Amino acid sequence: MAIETRNKIDTNFSTASMSDLVFLLLIFFMLTSTLVAPNAIKLLLPSSHSKTMARQTLTVYINASRHFYIEEKPVSQAGFKQSLYSKIKSQKEATIVLRADKSVPVQDIVTVIDAVNQINDEYHSRYKIILATKPNS
Question: d(Cα 41, Cα 37) in Å, to the nearest integer?
Answer without folding.
Answer: 9
